[in-house]
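One such given next:

>
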Amino acid sequence: MTKLLEKAFGFKTGVNSVRTEIVAGITTFLTMAYILAVNPNIFGALEGMPRGSVFTATALAALIGTLVMGLYAKKPFALAPGMGLNAFFVFTVCLTMGHSWQFALTAVFLEGILFIILTLTKVRSWILNAIPLTLKHAIGAGIGLFIAFIGLQNAGIIANSDATLVVLGDVTHGTALLAIIGLVITGALVILNVKGGILLGILATTVIGLFVKDPSTGAAITKLSGVISAPDSVAPIFAKFEWGQIASWDMLAVVFTFLFIDMFDTMGTVIGVSQKAGMVDEKGNVDGIDKMFMADSIATVCGAVLGTSTTTTYVESASGVGAGGRTGLTAFSVAVCFALALLFSPIFLAIPGAATAPALVIVGVMMMGPVVKIDWNDFSESIPAFLTVLLMPVAYSISDGILIGVIAYVILNACSGKFKKISPTMWVLAALFICKYIFI
């Protein structure tokens, strides 16, 4: 059994624990299970894409991508259709540009094929390894703030404001109050070093949610509508590609945009979570990066065939790493959870955002560690790093944080005469990123 675990998942006896890896996988799943509810709702705006079919496609894409990550890359990362990318698919490509959802699926499929080519030629690794160590530290911390912000927003602790963009929500009622209770419980469990404390915090908060009411509806926040539900067929959206406009400028622009966002969201997630897991060398290079990128590429192609938007590595994988996950067994456990979700979706979808928000905040705290490695007295390093950390949550984009950080690093060091610090790759990346903001 031990040899099987080592061969299949990169498990090391005496170093890794089966229980810890499984708990970490369940923890990751619970923090990203919201995509099973969100994705069908977003795609529901498009005629011809049944919500039930999208739910099944979402779960299957996550299952396949995460299995490849666990068995091939042997890393504790989970994949699923990406937030932001799904919104770009529906609201920009289809509803704003006026293209069919079949056109958008074709673009996602082509993006995945290009990703496979870029991975095989090691272009993605080349770009990743060219990023300065300071920015890599900043990326990890920025993602920590970003996922904590997502958690606070999902719970209603942070609310929308027309005057100030964001404002503190009503923390004395409903989901915000439940999330605060969950944060206290989860925080205490983590401080006491309880094994699986993050997962226990999620479960405890979910149970408490049965007795806490949503002021707007008067119903309990945790809603259990059933136990078992057979998954809908993906036939209405399976492999529905549209090849007629494959050579058009619109297709080129859409494919490039999908490619750009996915590449740097994935890079940011891999760097940040790998730092937390200790899977980087002294230069900040990520161990096994090519296999992780390949898993991400294959998942995108499979997701497009199934009928959903770009499948990407999830930043919520940090919650599983925070719970101790270090091998492919964690990813395998996440995949099993997605398989179960196909049959027991009413149970999994009953976990409210308020219950997973505390986990995202705690993991955000854990991921802030790398900032101490940044030389804050060297402003040629600290200013780009600070912009990277700051822009991820306030721009609501991992990729924008990275792009602006790279541009700032090159421009500031060039203006101060520190040309030797700037590699040729960084010059090229900065030029491309500037063109991206100007022309796309």
